[in-house]
Amino acid sequence: MDTTKMSLEDLGYNEFFESSRANLGLRTYSVARVVAEYREVYKVKNNEGEFLAKVTGKHMFTAEKREDYPAVGDWVAIEVLPEDKALIRGILPRKTILKKKYSSKQENQIIATNIDIAFIVESMDRDYNLNRFERFFVLAVEGNITPIMVLNKIDLISKDELDIRINKIKNRFTSATIIATSTQVEDGLEDLRSHIEIGKTYCFLGSSGVGKSSLINGLLQKDEIKTREMGLVTGKGKHTTTTREMYFLKNGGLVIDNPGTREVGIADSEIGIEKVFDEISLLSKECKYSNCTHMHEPGCIVLKAVEDERLDKEKYTNFLKLKKEAQFYKLTNIEKREKDKKFGKFIKKAKDSLESHVV
């Protein structure tokens, strides 16, 4: 596809965004999609071309949190300026949102928005971990995004070992779609490509060094994204992707690359947890107590299922861990909002006091 002649529909625009644009009274402005995010500036694209855009000073003043700013994948209303510059006049409501949280920060960080499918990538080396798959699944499902598993670097293990791992995955993730790939031997790329459709948006999630950018390069059929090889001694890969950016495939699909990370907090993802661990959610309805923690209560059906080996013990343990993490975040977030409310009242009181002394 000629990326210089893409229509708004090719970029993922549809009736959902058009009706939102009308409701917000933004039809007098052009619309464009955020395709890259840099420091205080965004690259946006529409059927007329690409522009470097900034938010207005008013927006910066009224924004209360990071989620109030544009993110890669967003549709924005822009005022076109000379020299391929633009001013962002508004952000259209997000159809889906992918966000995470670092343990050292209370504020959510948006990974990308308006995503249709998230390819969750793990490599077949020593970092392979089913619990991490579940963590990323929770993030995707919480944001109303369909997750697909990608087992990458399958050239590192034997065919028998791969089959064993796939069987374990199917036992734990009964309805998951699994794609096995290797960019080294160019295996599975056609299977991956077959899941990508024109006008839809995809992102790749996973830890550093699992090969996300190499997979996107394979789909692009050129080395557009720079990567570094895994360290032969440490086995730890270093990734040069430091910004989020959207890439355009020949078949018309839109793919977002994300910087890898070792730690991903699930933030306020209680709904995602319930959906990903639906087996446990269904069992819990039969528990003796409606507020059962599934840890020590008599008459807990979930505990009984673990004891009878009808429920995978590792899955159960990871469920408790993620549930506790989400509840902790919820409590700290409530505390943070309370502090913000008190600070807001303090500022208002200070302003009122200042105005009363002005002659």
Descriptive overview:
The chain is α/β, with parallel strands linked by helices and 359 residues long. It has 3 domains: 3-91, Beta Barrel (OB fold (Dihydrolipoamide Acetyltransferase, E2P)); 97-257, Rossmann fold, CATH 3.40.50; 270-341, Probable gtpase engc, domain 3 (Ribonucleotide Reductase Protein R1, domain 1, Orthogonal Bundle). It has helices at 15-23, 57-62, 130-142, 159-172, 189-193, 212-220, 270-276, 278-284, 301-307, 313-356, and strands spanning 30-37, 42-46, 49-55, 75-81, 85-91, 97-100, 109-113, 117-123, 146-152, 178-180, 201-205, 245-248, 254-257. The strands form 3 sheets. It has a 6-stranded mixed β-sheet. Strands 1-2-3-5-4 form a 5-stranded mixed barrel. A hairpin with an 8-residue loop joins strand 6 and strand 7. The longest helix is centred in the last third of the chain and has 44 residues, at 313-356. The radius of gyration is 23 Å and the shape is globular. It starts with 14 loop residues before the first helix and ends with a helix. Mean pLDDT is 82; it is low at 228-242.
